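quick one before i forget lol
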Amino acid sequence: MRFARPLPIIALAAALAAGCGSSSSEQSGNEQSQAATTQPPTARTAPTAPAGASAQSCSAGVAGVGELRVAGVACKTGRLVTAGWSGDASCASPAAASRFGCTVRGYRCLGAATERGIAVSCARPNRSISFIAKRG
């Protein structure tokens, strides 16, 4: 009977202790202060390329092509691939196709029809070139 008396007290203490845990939707004081000071990136501070990559805008230099961007390559290479894509008949959009692809200078290029023209992305490992081409 000595153990009968503390048993309800132990059960009550265990129930109280179980209720003191935090749920996944709660934040500790430290987490709240970090969340309050962390600002989402703005258009001016948002990264333009993955960490360690260097992305840059370039002049296209090819008629009907705009918004040339390269990552991991020089603008000159981007212009060469853009010119190759523009002059390669296999890179032309098939009738009524919304997506298509071809290979130019060792880069695999994928095109997608958009309201602004054809969005083209050409890539090789650790290198990418993208641009918008006018339709037609």
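fyi The longest strand covers residues 107-114.
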